[in-house]
Amino acid sequence: MKKIGASLRLEFPVFAHNVRRCADGVERPLCYLDSAVSTHKPQKVIDKIVEFMSRDYGSVHRGAYQLSVRASDQYEAARARVARFIGSGVRAEQVVFTRGTTESLNLLAHGLTETRLTADKRIVIPAIEHHANFVPWQQAALKADCEIAYIPMCGTSGSDLRLDLNAAAKLITPNTSIVSLAHVGNVLGQINPVQDIAALAKRVGALVILDCAQSMTCFSENPFDWGVDAIAFSGHKLYGPTGIGVLVLRPELLTELPPLLTGGGMISNVTLEESTWTTGTAKLEAGTPPITEAVGLAAALDWLDDVGRSRIHEHASSLASKFAEKLEKIPGIQLFYPGTGNETIVSFRHAALHAHDLATILDGSNVAMRAGHHCAWPLVRQLGVDALVRASFAAYSDEDDIEQAIEAIKEATYLLK
User: Which of 31, 146, 218, 375 is catalytic?
Assistant: First the structure.
């Protein structure tokens, strides 16, 4: 079994290429604490992408020649690999490739506006969602002229940084058609009570959609076992390439959904008067799909399973806890961290330094953290701030990252004196 942390970092060439001599003359390694936005890629994934593009690349499902056949075989093998990664009972025929989680959720919102939403229906989502799982449903409600209701948090600090289940039970009414939420929050790192909310939704016959963009690297449970009807996630957060997302649907929902995009590859017949669509996943994959990216994603899933998602979660959440403990001892720091010990993300602000300024100062010590509203403006406003700095931990993170980041934050605080 692979080692984790510092030893695993040797498999990621980005770290060898980004050692920097900082302004104080000290040479420092890259302290990358922004894996919640995107993970770096192991050499195994990079090699697979280069190999495929060098030897086997061809347009899929469109040629009888060998390159096309080989590319098609690998593309469909990637689809089957994703199904196995999700869990028992999921079939390749349920897996749709998209450009990312955002496109997957837009595809759902667009289609369900046509098939499920009328003026008397309701959509329910948490108020703290990433914009990718917020704006599409907001727009769907506007188009259908239906209600949209928002599940609030219990509070704005500490252990209250969690969804209010009592409020959810009141909001998920008999006219609720869709409930959509994230498995893991991208700002607070909270693990949402998906099973409880799915049970509330199923009592009224609502569809349950799960944004798994932040959870697939750490959690191996099959969400379909919880009553979820569709899940969405992105390859680039799974140590894989950008430009590929996954939408997995229950078979009946796949049959129901109309396409978001039309064109080549998704038609059954075209005449001058009308066009008809094909069936299955091809119906939702118009145009040339992300072929190379799918092959790279399959390699990333192999790598991820080799390391072990539960091991990554244990490792990353332990580092996050240690970082939060050290962080709260620094004067002027305000934490936005549930503190259950299961989070892999720590968000915070400095009372005297804007988040963007602090992130810029940290970069001077080769510490990479994201600052801003994190594509979650309603949440940030609810917390009463205009921006946060976020540290997120991954398989290649280690305790040296914590020390380097903490020292850089202390130095930024010292500069204010």
Answer: 375
